[in-house]
Amino acid sequence: SSPLRSCRGAAPGAGRAMNCRAEVLEVSVEARQVEEAMLAVLHTVLLHRSTGKFHYKKEGTYSIGTVGTQDVDCDFIDFAYVRVSSEELDRALRKAVGEFKDALRSSGSDGMGQISLEFYQKKKSRWPFSDECIPWELWTVKVNVVNLATEQERQICREKVGEKLCEKIINVVEVMNRHEYLPKMPTQSEVDNVFDTSLRDVQPYLYKISYQITDSLGASVTTTMRRLIKDTLAL
Amino acid sequence: QTVQVIVQARLGEKICTRSSSSPTGSDWFNLAIKDIPEVTHEAKKALAGQLPAVGRSMCVEISLKTSEGDSMELEIWCLEMNEKCDKEIKVSYTVYNRLSLLLKSLLAITRVTPAYRLSRKQGHEYVILYRIYFGEVQLSGLGEGFQTVRVGTVGTPVGTITLSCAYRINLAFMSTRQFERTPPIMGIIIDHFVDRPYPSSSPMHPCNYRAGEDNAAVYPSVEDSQEVCTTSFSTSPPSQCVFTVTKAHFQTPPPVVTDTLKVPVMGLAFSHQLSSSRLSYQPAALGVGSADMGYPVLFAGGLNAAHPHQLMGPGKEGGVPPVPSQPAHGTQADQERMCTPLDGGHYSAATPSSSEDTETVSNSSEGKCGSPRDLLETIFIRKVGAFVNKPINQVTMANLDIPFAMFAPKNVELEDNDPMVNPPESPDTDSPLQGSLHSEGSSGSSTGNTHDDFVMIDFKPAFSKDDILPMDLGTFYREFQNPPQLSSLSIDIGAQSMAEDLDSLPEKLAVHEKNVKEFDAFVETLQ
């Protein structure tokens, strides 16, 4: 297998590839709802962008594993969503969202930020150039953290955010339903350029999650941090 | 698969399936969607071997049925086909993958419509039922201003499939009006109620409901419904749905959902409701089309859709003879035992709690499990989990949300379900049942039915620390026992609640503690 190489990627939103479509969702939530709201959206996206594990056979055909799903109830939001049954994937997302949440909290900003989920393909380049990462779909969730004073407001917020998330899920599904560009099904040698094969039970498309915290001026601060959940350690 | 996803999403429980890296042959679309056999059966039956075509869509109707028999359509999921063919799609796996995506979208969307939350809370006051039909989409039952969400479309060389959901927005429950509307629909469903024509039982429902509006009616006590439920169970035809639903109708006053009420307590019976809602299907043209392998899961099989009772297999004709047979209490034990080994998944975990529930509520509940015959039992078991947990968690009316605002007047929070009080209509029910109900009720409510304000939980500290109360325990108990009797005897006080089982728990404990005292005294006299 090819050694891990760092990936020259495009900045989020700057779709280098011509076919990178970008979707933006916005939510206003309480601080304690950030995690669940992000997980709900990200998991829903990944549910649609994951397949079972591929098992290549001799003649160039492959069989696909099965993707299980499970329902997740939110504790702080009147909402439930479906995610892929993969603990590894869930852990990865939780880690990213956790970092985002911490950054939001500690940034001292007004509590505005965004988290991005980008699907990309790797394109191998000849030495000395490292591989290119070409995004083909980018999901951005903009978050606005609100602070509520009374319990009643919080209760209302629970319901409202739940309803909002329902709308967001519908939006996500609408986009998914357009059946726009998806990478071609790869051959065995190419599978790692399209899919994340490091998970044991499911196989999402290659993705990376990054986030930005916006300061009160609305500009994106230098704390643009790129979190690579998958491999791509720097050389 | 579509139907499976939809129905499973309305079971009221959380679904969890595992991903496996090695595919098993039966996982269509590479998604782990368990197949509930009766749902498959229903779907096949409705489809009768045909594929959807223009004007012939496959529809899954999700409706809600309250303990009083009122029902309301919540959603209609439609799988439609139009003529627009996508000839460009030549590669079949593209279609396959898109269908897989469609199912994933369906998984996501089914959790997002309002009915999901309702279905998670089903149990005491209402149940969610489903019905599969094949034909023209009927959206009239959804009330005004219903919204539509499109789950997805997939173009194929033979047409474009569209899966969408129309869901009700207006959840205000219009009782009598609703009810008047139902008979026509029930007309279609009439097959389902195997032995009793629905119309005969309809007169009952308005009474029930109106009574409710007057604040006088009470939800049939859990015991009541249980008895009724049990009865029907024992004699009902194999088709689960048939008897849960029919039974309710035919046993009358305790409306269909009555069963359901209990069901949560019973766990098993409940499962019927879900399946039982199949109130028929349009008499789709019977055809034995060969299922196109392109959509094997959805449209396989050509079954005779003629008889509702054939729903679940060995159709035993006939509906629910009103034989007030004693609930097969004994069988319940068997039933429960069967529950556990059957479905190793999260379902079985619920079984133990169901036994708890039955204890708290009343013995009559036990009969419930017993009656269904083996075929049903098997199927029930899978759903034990679906409803058993519910009653524990959502016992009070307080948990009901907006849709039942209309019921608010009579559903005061923390109302006790008074087993002593029979719904006015219930005199019609078989008297033996009532008799047993009463006895059940009295035992349950003798010390129970204390006003919830008198939190029985406080009893225990009081009991153990005499010095706190400047009165002796006898007086204390007498005091506490009297009020409940009064309230239970006065029908006017609609002090009913769905929290009967939970509330009766401290009461029963108090009773037992009281008995312990007497027993101790007795033992002392022996020495």
Automatic annotation (TrEMBL), chain A:
An annotated GO BP: autophagosome assembly
Gene: Atg101
Family stated for the protein in its record: Belongs to the ATG101 family.
Listed name of the protein: Autophagy-related protein 101
MF terms in GO: protein kinase binding
InterPro entries from the UniProt entry: ATG101
Superkingdom classification of source: Eukaryota
Record flagged with keyword Acyltransferase: no
Source organism: Urocolius indicus (Red-faced mousebird)
Taxonomic placement: Eukaryota, Metazoa, Chordata, Craniata, Vertebrata
From TrEMBL, chain B:
InterPro entries assigned: ATG13, Atg13_N, HORMA_dom_sf
Keyword annotations of the record: Autophagy, Cytoplasm
Pfam family name, one: ATG13
GO biological processes: mitophagy; piecemeal microautophagy of the nucleus; protein localization to phagophore assembly site; regulation of autophagy; regulation of cell population proliferation
Domain Autophagy-related protein 13 N-terminal residue range list: 67-173
Gene Ontology CC entries for this record: Atg1/ULK1 kinase complex; cytosol; phagophore assembly site
Stretch list, region Disordered: 309-372, 415-449
Polar residues: compositionally biased ranges: 350-366
Subcellular location field: Cytoplasm, Cytosol; Preautophagosomal structure
Biased composition (Low complexity): 435-448
Family annotation (PANTHER family): AUTOPHAGY-RELATED PROTEIN 13, PTHR13430
Family classification: Belongs to the ATG13 family. Metazoan subfamily.
Protein name, per record: Autophagy-related protein 13
Organism annotation: Urocolius indicus
Lineage: Eukaryota, Metazoa, Chordata, Craniata, Vertebrata
